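The instructor's notes for this session suggest beginning with a concrete chain rather than abstract definitions. Hand out the sequence below and ask the class to guess, before any prediction is shown, which regions might be ordered.
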Amino acid sequence: MTTQENIIYLDYHSTTPVDFRVAEKVMYYMTTAFGNANSVDHSYGDEAAQAVKQARQKIAELINTSPKEIIFTSGATESINLAIQGHISQQNTPATIIVSPVEHKAVLDTCQALAKKGLAEIIWLNVNQQAQIDLEYLEKVCSGGASLLCVMAANNEVGTIYPVQKIGAIAQKYNIPFLCDASQAVGKIPLNFQDWGITYLAISGHKLYAPRGVGALVVKKGYHLQPLIYGGGHQQGLRSGTLNVPGIVGLGEACQLRRLEMEADENAIALLRDQLQNLLQAQIPNLLVNGDLNNRLSSNLHISIPNIPNSAIIARVRHQLAISTGAACSSSIVAPSHVLQAMNLVENIIEGALRIGLGKFTTKEEIEKASSVIVSAVNEIHQLL
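After discussion, reveal the predicted structure:
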Protein backbone atom coordinates (compact mmCIF):
# COMPACT_ATOMS: atom_id res chain seq x y z
CA MET A 1 0.00 0.00 0.00
CA THR A 2 1.26 3.48 -0.90
CA THR A 3 1.71 5.89 2.00
CA GLN A 4 2.38 9.62 1.92
CA GLU A 5 5.94 8.97 3.12
CA ASN A 6 6.68 7.02 -0.07
CA ILE A 7 5.47 9.78 -2.39
CA ILE A 8 7.91 12.50 -3.46
CA TYR A 9 6.14 15.85 -3.06
CA LEU A 10 6.72 18.21 -5.99
CA ASP A 11 3.56 20.32 -5.94
CA TYR A 12 4.79 23.27 -3.90
CA HIS A 13 2.87 25.78 -6.05
CA SER A 14 -0.34 24.15 -4.89
CA THR A 15 0.57 24.22 -1.21
CA THR A 16 3.66 23.97 0.96
CA PRO A 17 4.24 21.88 4.06
CA VAL A 18 4.24 24.00 7.20
CA ASP A 19 7.75 24.71 8.48
CA PHE A 20 8.16 22.90 11.81
CA ARG A 21 9.31 26.13 13.46
CA VAL A 22 6.10 27.77 12.28
CA ALA A 23 3.99 24.81 13.42
CA GLU A 24 5.40 25.08 16.95
CA LYS A 25 4.26 28.71 17.20
CA VAL A 26 0.84 27.84 15.76
CA MET A 27 0.37 25.03 18.26
CA TYR A 28 1.25 27.30 21.18
CA TYR A 29 -1.40 29.82 20.16
CA MET A 30 -3.95 27.06 19.59
CA THR A 31 -3.51 25.30 22.92
CA THR A 32 -1.82 27.61 25.45
CA ALA A 33 -2.20 31.27 24.47
CA PHE A 34 -5.61 30.67 22.89
CA GLY A 35 -7.20 34.00 23.76
CA ASN A 36 -9.32 36.17 21.49
CA ALA A 37 -7.23 39.13 20.27
CA ASN A 38 -10.27 41.39 20.68
CA SER A 39 -10.82 40.46 24.35
CA VAL A 40 -9.36 43.45 26.16
CA ASP A 41 -10.37 42.54 29.71
CA HIS A 42 -7.78 39.88 30.56
CA SER A 43 -4.25 38.72 29.86
CA TYR A 44 -5.28 35.96 27.42
CA GLY A 45 -6.64 38.62 25.11
CA ASP A 46 -3.62 40.85 25.72
CA GLU A 47 -1.18 38.10 24.72
CA ALA A 48 -3.16 37.27 21.57
CA ALA A 49 -3.36 40.95 20.57
CA GLN A 50 0.38 41.36 21.09
CA ALA A 51 1.04 38.28 18.95
CA VAL A 52 -1.06 39.73 16.11
CA LYS A 53 0.82 43.03 16.37
CA GLN A 54 4.16 41.22 16.13
CA ALA A 55 2.96 39.19 13.14
CA ARG A 56 1.97 42.39 11.34
CA GLN A 57 5.45 43.76 11.93
CA LYS A 58 7.14 40.61 10.56
CA ILE A 59 5.02 40.62 7.39
CA ALA A 60 5.62 44.35 6.92
CA GLU A 61 9.39 43.87 7.12
CA LEU A 62 9.38 41.20 4.41
CA ILE A 63 7.51 43.31 1.83
CA ASN A 64 8.43 46.84 3.01
CA THR A 65 5.11 48.20 4.12
CA SER A 66 3.55 49.70 7.24
CA PRO A 67 2.00 47.18 9.68
CA LYS A 68 -1.10 49.42 9.68
CA GLU A 69 -1.68 48.64 5.99
CA ILE A 70 -2.10 44.89 6.59
CA ILE A 71 -5.57 43.31 6.76
CA PHE A 72 -5.74 39.62 7.71
CA THR A 73 -7.96 37.32 5.65
CA SER A 74 -8.54 33.61 5.10
CA GLY A 75 -6.16 33.59 2.14
CA ALA A 76 -5.34 35.17 -1.20
CA THR A 77 -8.73 34.35 -2.76
CA GLU A 78 -10.55 36.37 -0.10
CA SER A 79 -7.92 39.12 -0.30
CA ILE A 80 -8.39 39.38 -4.07
CA ASN A 81 -12.17 39.44 -3.77
CA LEU A 82 -12.02 42.13 -1.09
CA ALA A 83 -9.67 44.24 -3.20
CA ILE A 84 -11.56 43.93 -6.50
CA GLN A 85 -15.16 43.97 -5.24
CA GLY A 86 -14.44 46.42 -2.45
CA HIS A 87 -12.73 48.81 -4.85
CA ILE A 88 -15.12 48.54 -7.80
CA SER A 89 -18.26 48.89 -5.66
CA GLN A 90 -17.23 52.49 -4.97
CA GLN A 91 -16.68 53.38 -8.65
CA ASN A 92 -19.03 54.83 -11.19
CA THR A 93 -20.41 51.88 -13.14
CA PRO A 94 -19.47 50.29 -15.33
CA ALA A 95 -15.92 50.52 -14.05
CA THR A 96 -12.98 49.60 -16.30
CA ILE A 97 -10.60 46.87 -15.14
CA ILE A 98 -7.37 46.10 -16.98
CA VAL A 99 -6.52 42.43 -16.46
CA SER A 100 -3.78 40.04 -17.50
CA PRO A 101 -5.35 36.92 -19.07
CA VAL A 102 -2.92 34.64 -17.19
CA GLU A 103 -4.06 35.73 -13.72
CA HIS A 104 -5.23 33.24 -11.11
CA LYS A 105 -8.88 32.23 -11.34
CA ALA A 106 -9.60 34.25 -8.19
CA VAL A 107 -8.89 37.41 -10.18
CA LEU A 108 -10.44 36.31 -13.47
CA ASP A 109 -13.65 34.91 -12.00
CA THR A 110 -14.18 37.94 -9.76
CA CYS A 111 -13.70 40.40 -12.62
CA GLN A 112 -15.93 38.36 -14.94
CA ALA A 113 -18.66 38.12 -12.28
CA LEU A 114 -18.66 41.92 -11.99
CA ALA A 115 -18.76 42.22 -15.78
CA LYS A 116 -21.79 39.91 -15.98
CA LYS A 117 -23.59 42.13 -13.49
CA GLY A 118 -22.84 45.17 -15.63
CA LEU A 119 -20.59 46.65 -12.94
CA ALA A 120 -17.35 46.43 -14.89
CA GLU A 121 -15.84 46.27 -18.36
CA ILE A 122 -12.66 44.23 -18.80
CA ILE A 123 -9.72 45.24 -20.97
CA TRP A 124 -7.45 42.25 -21.56
CA LEU A 125 -3.68 42.65 -21.73
CA ASN A 126 -1.53 40.82 -24.28
CA VAL A 127 0.88 38.04 -23.32
CA ASN A 128 3.34 36.13 -25.48
CA GLN A 129 4.28 32.43 -25.55
CA GLN A 130 6.45 32.86 -22.43
CA ALA A 131 3.48 34.43 -20.58
CA GLN A 132 5.31 37.77 -20.56
CA ILE A 133 3.18 40.91 -20.60
CA ASP A 134 3.48 43.40 -23.46
CA LEU A 135 4.46 46.51 -21.49
CA GLU A 136 3.98 48.83 -24.46
CA TYR A 137 0.40 47.67 -24.84
CA LEU A 138 -0.06 47.93 -21.07
CA GLU A 139 1.00 51.59 -21.19
CA LYS A 140 -1.26 52.20 -24.19
CA VAL A 141 -4.39 50.91 -22.44
CA CYS A 142 -3.45 52.61 -19.15
CA SER A 143 -3.15 55.94 -20.98
CA GLY A 144 -6.89 55.73 -21.62
CA GLY A 145 -7.59 55.50 -17.90
CA ALA A 146 -9.06 52.69 -15.81
CA SER A 147 -10.56 51.97 -12.40
CA LEU A 148 -8.16 49.13 -11.54
CA LEU A 149 -5.18 47.21 -12.95
CA CYS A 150 -4.72 43.52 -12.04
CA VAL A 151 -1.33 41.90 -12.70
CA MET A 152 0.23 39.14 -10.60
CA ALA A 153 3.82 39.14 -9.34
CA ALA A 154 4.56 35.58 -10.51
CA ASN A 155 2.52 33.09 -12.47
CA ASN A 156 1.17 30.12 -10.52
CA GLU A 157 1.44 27.72 -13.48
CA VAL A 158 4.50 28.51 -15.60
CA GLY A 159 6.38 30.52 -12.96
CA THR A 160 6.98 33.64 -15.07
CA ILE A 161 8.01 36.59 -12.87
CA TYR A 162 6.52 39.95 -13.84
CA PRO A 163 8.31 43.33 -13.68
CA VAL A 164 6.13 44.61 -10.84
CA GLN A 165 8.17 47.76 -10.32
CA LYS A 166 7.80 48.77 -13.99
CA ILE A 167 4.11 47.89 -14.01
CA GLY A 168 3.57 49.88 -10.82
CA ALA A 169 5.36 52.88 -12.33
CA ILE A 170 3.03 52.79 -15.36
CA ALA A 171 -0.01 52.51 -13.08
CA GLN A 172 1.18 55.47 -11.02
CA LYS A 173 1.87 57.53 -14.15
CA TYR A 174 -1.79 57.26 -15.16
CA ASN A 175 -3.14 57.28 -11.58
CA ILE A 176 -4.60 53.76 -11.81
CA PRO A 177 -4.87 51.67 -8.61
CA PHE A 178 -2.83 48.46 -8.99
CA LEU A 179 -3.80 45.09 -7.49
CA CYS A 180 -0.90 42.64 -7.40
CA ASP A 181 -1.63 39.00 -6.56
CA ALA A 182 1.66 38.09 -4.89
CA SER A 183 0.62 34.73 -3.45
CA GLN A 184 3.24 32.78 -5.45
CA ALA A 185 5.92 35.46 -5.06
CA VAL A 186 6.03 36.52 -1.40
CA GLY A 187 8.95 34.83 0.30
CA LYS A 188 10.47 33.71 -3.01
CA ILE A 189 11.45 36.99 -4.69
CA PRO A 190 12.01 40.51 -3.27
CA LEU A 191 8.90 42.72 -3.22
CA ASN A 192 8.64 46.35 -2.19
CA PHE A 193 5.07 47.46 -1.53
CA GLN A 194 5.99 50.93 -0.39
CA ASP A 195 8.11 51.98 -3.37
CA TRP A 196 6.77 50.00 -6.35
CA GLY A 197 3.44 51.73 -6.96
CA ILE A 198 1.30 48.84 -5.65
CA THR A 199 -2.09 49.74 -4.20
CA TYR A 200 -3.35 46.32 -3.09
CA LEU A 201 -1.18 43.22 -2.50
CA ALA A 202 -2.61 39.73 -1.86
CA ILE A 203 -0.70 37.18 0.25
CA SER A 204 -1.45 33.51 0.98
CA GLY A 205 0.11 31.72 3.96
CA HIS A 206 0.12 28.21 2.56
CA LYS A 207 2.38 29.19 -0.36
CA LEU A 208 5.27 30.12 1.97
CA TYR A 209 5.35 27.37 4.62
CA ALA A 210 2.59 28.82 6.83
CA PRO A 211 -0.78 27.12 7.45
CA ARG A 212 -3.71 27.03 5.07
CA GLY A 213 -6.66 29.31 5.83
CA VAL A 214 -4.71 32.49 6.54
CA GLY A 215 -3.60 35.32 4.29
CA ALA A 216 -3.44 39.08 4.07
CA LEU A 217 -4.40 42.02 1.93
CA VAL A 218 -2.09 45.01 2.06
CA VAL A 219 -4.00 48.24 1.39
CA LYS A 220 -2.06 51.40 0.62
CA LYS A 221 -2.70 54.26 3.01
CA GLY A 222 -5.35 56.61 1.70
CA TYR A 223 -7.33 53.94 -0.15
CA HIS A 224 -10.65 52.67 1.16
CA LEU A 225 -12.58 49.51 0.33
CA GLN A 226 -16.20 48.50 0.76
CA PRO A 227 -16.08 45.47 3.10
CA LEU A 228 -17.40 42.07 2.03
CA ILE A 229 -17.94 40.87 5.60
CA TYR A 230 -19.77 42.84 8.29
CA GLY A 231 -20.13 42.30 12.01
CA GLY A 232 -18.09 44.06 14.66
CA GLY A 233 -16.04 46.44 12.56
CA HIS A 234 -12.75 44.60 13.13
CA GLN A 235 -9.57 45.51 11.23
CA GLN A 236 -10.48 49.12 10.51
CA GLY A 237 -13.95 47.97 9.47
CA LEU A 238 -12.55 46.24 6.39
CA ARG A 239 -12.87 42.64 7.54
CA SER A 240 -15.02 41.77 10.54
CA GLY A 241 -14.70 38.52 12.45
CA THR A 242 -12.64 36.98 15.23
CA LEU A 243 -9.00 36.94 14.20
CA ASN A 244 -7.40 33.58 13.44
CA VAL A 245 -4.58 34.20 15.90
CA PRO A 246 -2.74 30.85 15.44
CA GLY A 247 -2.84 31.26 11.65
CA ILE A 248 -1.79 34.91 11.82
CA VAL A 249 1.12 34.05 14.11
CA GLY A 250 2.10 31.28 11.67
CA LEU A 251 1.99 33.68 8.73
CA GLY A 252 4.11 36.21 10.59
CA GLU A 253 6.67 33.62 11.65
CA ALA A 254 6.87 32.21 8.10
CA CYS A 255 7.42 35.71 6.69
CA GLN A 256 10.22 36.36 9.16
CA LEU A 257 11.90 33.07 8.22
CA ARG A 258 11.56 33.85 4.51
CA ARG A 259 13.13 37.27 5.04
CA LEU A 260 16.11 35.66 6.73
CA GLU A 261 16.44 32.54 4.58
CA MET A 262 14.85 33.36 1.21
CA GLU A 263 17.99 34.13 -0.77
CA ALA A 264 19.90 31.03 0.28
CA ASP A 265 16.86 28.75 -0.02
CA GLU A 266 15.85 29.98 -3.47
CA ASN A 267 19.39 29.63 -4.82
CA ALA A 268 19.50 26.02 -3.60
CA ILE A 269 16.02 25.30 -5.01
CA ALA A 270 17.01 26.73 -8.42
CA LEU A 271 20.01 24.40 -8.60
CA LEU A 272 17.79 21.38 -7.92
CA ARG A 273 15.22 22.60 -10.44
CA ASP A 274 17.92 22.97 -13.10
CA GLN A 275 19.25 19.50 -12.29
CA LEU A 276 15.80 17.97 -12.76
CA GLN A 277 15.29 19.90 -15.99
CA ASN A 278 18.64 18.68 -17.36
CA LEU A 279 17.95 15.07 -16.38
CA LEU A 280 14.57 15.11 -18.09
CA GLN A 281 15.82 16.85 -21.23
CA ALA A 282 18.63 14.32 -21.58
CA GLN A 283 16.19 11.39 -21.53
CA ILE A 284 13.14 12.94 -23.25
CA PRO A 285 14.45 14.65 -26.42
CA ASN A 286 11.21 16.40 -27.42
CA LEU A 287 10.49 17.77 -23.94
CA LEU A 288 9.63 21.48 -23.86
CA VAL A 289 10.05 23.86 -20.92
CA ASN A 290 7.30 26.50 -20.74
CA GLY A 291 7.39 30.02 -19.39
CA ASP A 292 10.08 32.69 -19.30
CA LEU A 293 13.29 30.75 -18.65
CA ASN A 294 15.19 33.94 -17.78
CA ASN A 295 12.59 35.26 -15.35
CA ARG A 296 10.86 32.43 -13.52
CA LEU A 297 10.44 31.27 -9.95
CA SER A 298 13.32 29.15 -8.70
CA SER A 299 10.83 26.48 -7.70
CA ASN A 300 9.03 26.21 -11.03
CA LEU A 301 9.54 23.62 -13.75
CA HIS A 302 6.64 23.61 -16.20
CA ILE A 303 7.16 21.07 -18.97
CA SER A 304 5.26 19.69 -21.93
CA ILE A 305 5.79 16.34 -23.59
CA PRO A 306 4.03 16.77 -26.95
CA ASN A 307 1.63 14.02 -28.02
CA ILE A 308 1.63 12.36 -24.60
CA PRO A 309 -1.46 13.37 -22.58
CA ASN A 310 -0.54 14.64 -19.12
CA SER A 311 -3.31 12.46 -17.67
CA ALA A 312 -1.45 9.37 -18.90
CA ILE A 313 1.70 10.50 -17.08
CA ILE A 314 -0.18 11.31 -13.87
CA ALA A 315 -1.93 7.93 -13.91
CA ARG A 316 1.45 6.19 -13.92
CA VAL A 317 3.35 8.36 -11.43
CA ARG A 318 0.69 9.38 -8.88
CA HIS A 319 1.69 6.69 -6.36
CA GLN A 320 5.32 7.80 -6.46
CA LEU A 321 5.21 11.52 -7.31
CA ALA A 322 2.96 14.43 -6.37
CA ILE A 323 2.98 16.66 -9.45
CA SER A 324 0.08 18.36 -11.23
CA THR A 325 -1.41 19.08 -14.63
CA GLY A 326 -2.24 22.67 -13.71
CA ALA A 327 -3.42 25.04 -11.03
CA ALA A 328 -5.05 23.49 -7.98
CA CYS A 329 -7.80 26.13 -8.12
CA SER A 330 -9.18 24.44 -11.24
CA SER A 331 -7.71 20.96 -11.22
CA SER A 332 -11.04 19.29 -10.36
CA ILE A 333 -12.37 20.50 -13.71
CA VAL A 334 -11.12 18.66 -16.78
CA ALA A 335 -10.40 21.62 -19.05
CA PRO A 336 -7.35 23.06 -20.81
CA SER A 337 -5.30 25.54 -18.80
CA HIS A 338 -6.44 29.12 -19.41
CA VAL A 339 -2.84 30.23 -18.86
CA LEU A 340 -1.45 28.00 -21.61
CA GLN A 341 -4.30 28.96 -23.92
CA ALA A 342 -3.59 32.67 -23.35
CA MET A 343 0.06 31.94 -24.20
CA ASN A 344 -1.25 30.62 -27.53
CA LEU A 345 0.49 27.25 -27.21
CA VAL A 346 -0.60 24.54 -29.62
CA GLU A 347 -3.03 21.88 -28.48
CA ASN A 348 -0.62 18.95 -28.14
CA ILE A 349 1.71 21.06 -25.97
CA ILE A 350 -1.16 22.11 -23.72
CA GLU A 351 -2.41 18.53 -23.42
CA GLY A 352 1.08 17.32 -22.50
CA ALA A 353 1.74 19.97 -19.84
CA LEU A 354 2.92 19.14 -16.31
CA ARG A 355 3.63 21.54 -13.45
CA ILE A 356 6.46 20.53 -11.14
CA GLY A 357 7.00 22.65 -8.04
CA LEU A 358 10.04 22.32 -5.79
CA GLY A 359 10.51 23.74 -2.32
CA LYS A 360 12.95 24.18 0.52
CA PHE A 361 12.46 20.61 1.75
CA THR A 362 13.12 19.00 -1.66
CA THR A 363 16.29 16.87 -1.70
CA LYS A 364 18.81 15.90 -4.39
CA GLU A 365 17.84 12.25 -3.95
CA GLU A 366 14.19 13.10 -4.58
CA ILE A 367 15.10 14.95 -7.77
CA GLU A 368 17.02 11.97 -9.12
CA LYS A 369 14.20 9.57 -8.24
CA ALA A 370 11.55 11.91 -9.70
CA SER A 371 13.44 12.10 -12.98
CA SER A 372 13.64 8.32 -13.17
CA VAL A 373 9.92 7.91 -12.45
CA ILE A 374 8.85 10.45 -15.11
CA VAL A 375 11.21 9.03 -17.74
CA SER A 376 9.97 5.48 -17.05
CA ALA A 377 6.36 6.61 -17.44
CA VAL A 378 7.12 8.33 -20.75
CA ASN A 379 8.95 5.28 -22.07
CA GLU A 380 6.08 3.01 -21.04
CA ILE A 381 3.58 5.19 -22.89
CA HIS A 382 5.80 5.34 -25.99
CA GLN A 383 5.79 1.53 -26.12
CA LEU A 384 1.99 1.55 -26.24
CA LEU A 385 1.78 4.08 -29.08
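Then share the key points. The radius of gyration is 21 Å. The mean pLDDT is 94.
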